[in-house]
Structures are given as C-alpha cells and as structure tokens.
Amino acid sequence: MRYVVPFAYTVIFSLFGVYVLITKDGKPIPETSATLKETANHTKFINKPVDNSPSSLLLSKLYKKQDAEQLRSVKRLNNSDVFVSLNSEELPNVSAFGTNFSDPFWAQKLCRGTDIENCSAKFKQMETRLRYSSKYNMSACIVQKNMSTMLQAIMCYLFDEDKFIASGRSVGRESHHGKFCNRKNEVDSSDNSTKAVIKMRSLMKNWNLFAIVREPVDRFLSGFVDKCVRQPYNPKNGYCNGCASNMTCFIQSEYKRIITNSKKAIPSRNFEDRHFFPQSWRCNFETEFDRYKFIQYSSNPTFEDQFLSKLFKIFQKQGVPKQRIAYINDQLSGGRTVHSTVESEARKFFEERLLSSPFLLEYVFRMFYWDFQLFQFKLPSYGSDIPKDYF
C-alpha cells in the first residue's frame, strides 16, 4: 500500500535525540505539544545502552532475518526473465462461460439468475481470526492480504502499548513469525478448546468489531505475486496448486476450488486457499455482518486518505488517545512490510496481463463476486480495453 500521512506533520529525529515536528509548510511545532512528547516517549528506547538480553538478541536476530528475506524478495520480484517466460502463452479472447465481451457492461451482468451457479457462494464459515484490545473494547477481523500483518501489529500495540514499546518492538517491523503478542490477544477458529470458543463468543457478542476489506482484483494480484512469485510456500512440492508462477493455470485451478467448496457445508482449505478464498467467508460474517464496521482498502491512491481516516475514527471512538494514534500513523507512513509487492516489476507485469484479459478477469470476478457486492466495490464497465484507471 502507498501509505500517506493524513496529519499535518512529520516526525524528524536528530542524531542527538532531539525531536522536532515539522508542518507541511515547513514551520516547526513547539516541542511542548502532547503529540511530540508522546512520540519521544515511544522512541526513547533508541537512546538506551546496548541491550544484550536474550529477548533483545532474539529480536535483533529476527530483524536481520527479515532484512535478508527482503533482499531475496526484491530479487525474485524483479527477475522478469523467470515470471515472463512462465506466462508466455497466448490468452484466449473468448469467454469460457459464453459471456459477450463486446458488451461494455458484461462484468456487471455476471452471476444473475442461473449463472449464479458459476460464481462463489455468498457466505461460508471458513475461518475466523480475531485480534483484540481489551483496553479499548474492540476486535479486528484478520483476513490474509488485507493488510493483515500490519493490522495484527497495530492491535498488538493497542493491547499493551507500554510493554510493546519497552520491548524494543516496532509496529512497522512486526511479522507473523516471532510476534510480540503471540497468543496474548488472539482468538482463532482453528483453536477448538472450550476456552477459545467462549472467548470468541464473548468478543463477537459484546465488543466493537471491524474489518479491513480489500478491492478484490487488487487483493488477488497482491496474493498471487506474494505467494506465487515472491516467496512460494513449499516450492519443492508444487506450490500455487501446482501452477508455480503461471497466473492462467492458478486462476483456473483456484476458481475450481472456490466453486467446489461453495457447495460444501464446511470448506476445506490449503495454504493458498487461506490467501485467496473470498473475504466474505471469514470471521462469521454471515451472522455478524451488520455488527462489523468495514474499512475499504486498495493500493489505488484514491483509497488512502479515506482508509486511514476511517481507521482512526474507529480508534478515536473507542477512546484510543491521540498520541497513540499519532504513533500508529507514523508507523504506517514509514514504509511497507516485507510482503508488499505493489511497486515490483512482477506486480506491474501481472497487473497488466490480468487487466488486459477479459478471459482471466471473468474468472476473478466470478471468484469474488460477493466481495464486490457486499463490500461495495464497483465492477468495472468496459469491453476488451484495459481499464487504465483501475489502480
């Protein structure tokens, strides 16, 4: 995501530990501001003596591992010779479902009447992953590829801000592996213990719930480039449904998995499914939909201001102090996680290939039809032309 800073300042740290806030017009804000003091408190651990404790050494090792992974990721994501050669086949220009691509409104006419059988189910009880802050009486639904790594880190920070910062952690550098809040503020449907079930029911019933929902095509592209190009899961045994980095193969195979699981009472899922199955199948949305606040998200810059504004309004309503929100905002504006692919050569290549192919796009629209409808993302109106302003 291309993060932006909605507040009218940026934080600059000098080499001598002096903190200065600069407004957009270049004027400094007095150092007595509450926000400045809180920012200084959140970063004062930088000036502490070197900590050689086991926890600090473990964190240092974790961050070094992240840095190494980042370097490998950049190499894979920009090695165009590999992923271009794996996607050199000519794409069909005729629909696999009999759709008339010459009709500029063909996408909006999908999944009507009996054609609904060729589209994903509206709801399924696939998976629920909640991250909560008891202090602020709120819980976030975690959906893979919906800013999930960053959202988990934010909820971990809000679970206990002081301990999080004192540990030397940073929201911008938290990852799924070695996370500070591991099992502390987490409830997952995969944990079938009585205690977990009771906790989940309590969160669903009494707490304020919110979820980040992502534009479906953007989410698919992010997931494909991340899991099928950047860092494949179990590459020796045939990753991405045995399709490797071939997008056509993967789209068709994952479409079949979604349609098959749409007809099952309880969907089965593999690693890829967790990252590509519809968003509407998560977090018990079928019964709790009206209780959730949904925040739209996309790598399209037009979503950025409204995304952060809605997120911070939820935090403000739940009583999160302004200085805590300012820290989160600073972390969000500081860069992307290791999973980010939006500016890579791979993302550019696959985005253009997908958006220029009605044949492939139709599969994606059918896979995520209800994500478009339920979360109020518009299906585009165009014939066979590339929608230049899609992202």
UniProtKB/TrEMBL annotation:
Listed GO MF terms: chondroitin 4-sulfotransferase activity
**Example GO BP:** chondroitin sulfate proteoglycan biosynthetic process
For this protein, the record's Pfam families field holds: Sulfotransfer_2 (PF03567)
Q: Name the domain of life this protein comes from.
A: Eukaryota
- GO cellular component terms, semicolon-separated: membrane
- The keyword Transmembrane belongs to this UniProt entry's keyword annotation: yes
Q: Which InterPro entries match?
A: Chst-1-like (IPR007669), Sulfotransferase (IPR005331)
Q: What are the transmembrane regions?
A: 6-22
Q: Which UniProt keywords apply?
A: Membrane, Transmembrane, Transmembrane helix
Q: What is this protein called?
A: Carbohydrate sulfotransferase
